[in-house]
Amino acid sequence: MKKIICLITLAIALVCVLTACGGNKEAVTTDGSTSMNKVIGALGEAFQADSGITVTYNATGSGAGIQAVLEGRCDIGLASRDLKDEEKAKGLEGTVLAYDGIAIIVNPENPVNDLDLETIAKIYTGEIKNWKEIGGNDAEIVLIGREAGSGTRDGFESITDTEDKCKYRQELTSTGDVITTVASNPNAIGYASLASVKETVKALNVDGVKPSEATIKDGSYVVQRPFVLVTKTDVTLSESAQSFFNFITSEAAQGIIIEAGVVPAN
Amino acid sequence: MHRRFFRDIFEWIRNKNSKTYENIIHGIFLILGLITVGCVLLITVYLIISGIPAIKEIGLFDFLFGKEWASTAGEPKYGILPFILTSIYGTAGAIIIGVPIGFFTAVYISKLSDKKIRSVMESAVNLLAGIPSVVYGLVGMLVLVPAIREIFNIPDGASLLAAIIVLAIMILPNIIKVSVTALDAVPKEYEDASLALGATDIETYFKVSVPAAKSGIAAAVVLGVGRAIGEAMAVMMVAGNVANMPSLFQSVRFLTTAVASEMAYSSPGSLQRNALFSIALVLFLFIMLINATLNFFLKRDKEK
After folding, report:
1. Which residues of A fall within a CB distance of 8 Å from B244?
2. What is d(CA B30, CA A13) in angstroms, rounded to the nearest whole number?
3. Distance in angstroms (rounded) separating the CA atoms of residues B239 and A190
4. Which phi and psi angles does B265 have, rounded to 5°?
5. Which distant-in-sequence residues (6+ apart) come within 8 Å of B147 by Cβ?
6. Is the model's pTM score more than 0.95?
7. Structure ipTM
8. Residue A49: is it exposed, middle or buried by C-beta count within 10 angstroms (0-12/13-18/19+)?
């Protein structure tokens, strides 16, 4: 999918270059987190339709994106985590574009309503195997996850600190499949982007906080991560990059960000 | 308008020189035929070229017989033995369940049923063949997987067993249709001779008709194997997709699903992507083997 989007973007870029619809304005280059593919893709498309300036997106990962800004290889870096202090010390500035909330979902029949982050990690690493250990029915916990490389899986595992340690019972290839499976198995637990969670499953409170747009925004719901725009403090953005930056952090872009399944920061 | 135009051209060429006309038509058919052959060659060459590098890097033995697959871990492991075994077990299971059902159905349709029932059953089989695999997967996911969980009292129903059942149903139309054709082709005289000697209907069908059609039935089974081993979508939705060593009630990953589930996110040129091509190459070799077997049966049939 990602590749297809990349190809399409490239194709559009080529067409624009050939037909010179971008005029002499230069393209905006972005580089970084693979998880931000959807939101940056949607924003880039809207921006291009608006201004005729093309936006390119290179899915390399948060670390590589930050490195790229630092070395001046792209206009805006994309990171799906907060900037570290040593990165800020190098003259980088992070602007939170949106928050990606990941809901921990169980079957509506499940009596468990609340878990803390540590317990969730223990469940996924196989330390806790039965629902009765955490106040549920006497039944084995069925762990539902996403396939290797998925942005949601990457987000969930990095927040719960369970990278490469999860003992999945099923690895499904889409959010919809995860929700369907959890909805049909009373002992299943899974994770999915909050925006796509439906009534067929129950989203758990984490550390006593109910996942919602408000709790994600104020940071009290912890299974979330920021989507950060990384720029250099000592270098001014090119004219087109600045207008893209202004556009995506404006109110006009909020609808597009919500549609991409994340919570806008502004 | 167009038709007339072409007809005029053909007419003109034919009138002018019938040999040229023949040659042109011959050429067109040749080109169309070459397109098909070209596609096969292109895919084969492409798979080999893109499948070899990862095998070289990982090592053939570690790749084929490694028991662990963790392509995105800090220390990636690329062993596809779980996928190979799962594909073999899954296909074998589907054959064990699907062949008897398909075979007896074929005997019934070809020999025992009257005309009306036959036409109903044949259209049902055709319909079964036309159902898209994603629909099989969806029904499996929503009906079969929960049912397996309840019946066997296991935590989760997504398992090798679920995949086997779905595959068994999916290969039925192939087995039935080819077997029916083979059974229909048995000369009536064979059966009449048997009946005249005092054998009952059932004796005749199983001792005369079936042996006479055995090459065709074997071909049907091989065709079923080919369909089962190549199926990805339906299996992906019911098997759970975790790279475990196969066991009946465990979540498993097939060769096909291993390629399909990770392809979207692997970055081009990475070892992960190349390893996926290598898996595809292994799958391709399996299919080639099955095709060779099929040709063997069909050829033997012809020689008889």
Report:
1. none
2. 40
3. 17
4. -105, -10
5. B157
6. no
7. 0.74
8. exposed
